[in-house]
Write a sequence for this structure.
């Protein structure tokens, strides 16, 4: 397969970026999108040109680093997968594919497709933890938790912090990310002590970082590679109301 | 008071205010439509005029009216602050953004639909509320004001367009408010959707029946 790529190139944080066109040739349908970029970069290096910078690590949809906007969608035109899990068979031979970094005030572009996602880390530092003495490994059944609750907490904990929710949201809101992190702890016994402070502190940090607010368009859920449900946002709102009024 | 300012300072808190005032405005739409149906009583407007007289003198109604104006004020102010902050959260837009793949149009144009409803509101108050409340002696009865306003095709078309936008606003807004309050779950979801239909479809249709009826009777007359 052959493709024409229109890729955002930006030298550093402070420089103006622009789109550059590239051709990707001899691409097989079972290559991942990142492998296709590797091939393009290989050609660029051979021609003594600067390769396209993009974030990646696990290449199996668990680290959350590979987010980019592909053909007008966060992580590209697939449901429930990260850019590294996107196969070139999702495109038609000869396609023009526009590739841009995730865009948000709170996620400044560092270089080309790489963004600075440390705003998420600061939200986590504001309250996304439990303060307990970890000590030895506790007995697995010491704290009984109903299966339905455990499943619910687990599906919230599946968030990989990729930022696609922010990228897809018209308001660049981090609500789905924060809601997932608030939920995974609010649902479990270990998260109870700091429950009130947590939701208030994390939301305050979200506002401070310059993310937008939630307009309930649910674009985040549709684009989330882990299909985190917006019912977590409803839970976060409940948690916030209880904390603020109580 | 401290609690309120704290809530208002946060973005989720602002959404609560928008949702709460929005749902209050929805209850007002019900009352307003119910009263307006008196226009269809075939008595040359007597019942409707009496209703509108009562509304402007009853002390209880006058108090609720103040709450209503405050609700509009805070709804619009808060929604505008949110909209402004949300715009600043993405200073540079995407070159290609396939929004329809992940969200519904109504949910993305709340500010536009709300703004048109606001423009409508100003004109609407100017046509009916201001003359009858502040200059009652110089003006004809409310019924005659209605008949006159709806004899203009342009006025009716504007009215209908605004109602379509109101429908859009509430198609998203009504169910959105429940999500904002955290009321969500299999139990509630379909109930909220169904009650939502009343607000985004039936109520705007009800309001639309009035300009259509009066435009029809003045232009193709003969009914009274
Ligand atoms: C009869 C008039 C109106 C009614 C019944 C109404 C009702 C509602 C409701 C129920 C919501 C949902 C709140 C939520 O998601 O929590 C909403 C949202 C909104 N309204 Fe209105 N509204 C009206 C007029 C207006 C006007 C005049 C504006 C002017 C700007 C406006 C702007 C907005 C905006 C921007 C939102 C979305 C806020 C967000 O999601 O961030 N509305 N409205
Ligand atoms: S909620 Fe989904 S889209 Fe958002 S950061 Fe987590 S995994 Fe990524
Ligand atoms: S590279 Fe780890 S999620 Fe894509």
């Amino acid at each position: 397969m052959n493709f024409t790529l229109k890729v955002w190139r930006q030298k550093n944080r402070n420089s103006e970026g622009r789109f550059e066109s590239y051709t990707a040739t001899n691409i097989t349908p079972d290559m991942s999108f990142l492998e296709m970029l590797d091939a393009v970069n290989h050609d660029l290096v051979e021609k003594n040109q600067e390769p396209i910078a993009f974030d990646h690590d696990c290449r199996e949809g668990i680290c959350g680093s590979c987010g980019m906007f592909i053909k007008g969608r966060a992580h590209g035109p697939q449901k429930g997968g990260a850019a590294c899990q996107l196969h070139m068979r999702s495109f038609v031979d000869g396609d023009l594919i526009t590739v841009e970094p995730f865009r948000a005030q709170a996620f400044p572009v560092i270089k080309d497709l790489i963004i600075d996602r440390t705003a998420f880390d600061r939200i986590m530092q504001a309250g996304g933890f439990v303060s307990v003495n970890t000590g030895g490994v506790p007995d697995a059944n010491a704290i009984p938790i109903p299966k339905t609750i455990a499943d619910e907490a687990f599906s919230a904990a599946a968030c990989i912090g990729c930022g696609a929710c922010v990228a897809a949201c018209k308001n660049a809101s981090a609500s789905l990310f924060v809601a997932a992190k608030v939920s995974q702890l609010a649902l479990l016994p270990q998260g109870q002590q700091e429950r009130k402070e947590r939701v208030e502190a994390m939301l305050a940090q979200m506002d401070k970082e310059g993310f937008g607010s939630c307009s309930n368009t649910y674009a985040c859920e549709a684009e989330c590679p882990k299909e985190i449900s917006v019912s977590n946002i409803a839970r976060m709102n409940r948690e916030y109301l209880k904390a603020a009024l109580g | 008071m401290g609690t309120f300012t704290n809530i208002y300072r946060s973005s989720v808190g602002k959404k609560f205010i928008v949702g709460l005032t929005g749902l209050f405005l929805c209850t007002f739409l019900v009352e307003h439509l119910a009263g307006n149906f008196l226009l269809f009583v075939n008595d040359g407007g007597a019942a409707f005029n009496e209703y509108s007289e009562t509304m402007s003198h009853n002390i209880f109604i006058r108090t609720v009216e103040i709450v209503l104006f405050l609700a509009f004020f805070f709804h619009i102010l808060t929604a505008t602050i949110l909209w402004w902050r949300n715009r600043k959260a993405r200073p540079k837009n995407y070159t290609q953004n396939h929004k329809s793949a992940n969200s519904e149009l109504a949910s993305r144009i709340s500010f536009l639909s709300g703004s048109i409803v606001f423009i409508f509101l100003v004109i609407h108050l100017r046509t009916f509320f201001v003359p009858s409340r502040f200059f009652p002696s110089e003006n004809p009865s409310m019924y005659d004001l209605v008949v006159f306003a709806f004899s203009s095709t342009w006025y009716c078309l504007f009215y209908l367009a605004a109602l379509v936008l109101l429908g859009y606003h509430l198609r998203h807004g009504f169910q959105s408010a429940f999500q904002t309050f955290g009321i969500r779950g299999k139990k509630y979801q379909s109930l909220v959707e169904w009650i939502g239909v009343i607000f985004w479809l039936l109520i705007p249709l009800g309001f639309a029946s009035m300009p259509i009826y009066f435009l029809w009777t003045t232009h193709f007359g003969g009914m009274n």
User: Anything to note?
Assistant: The longest strand of chain A covers residues 3-9. The mean pLDDT of chain A is 96.
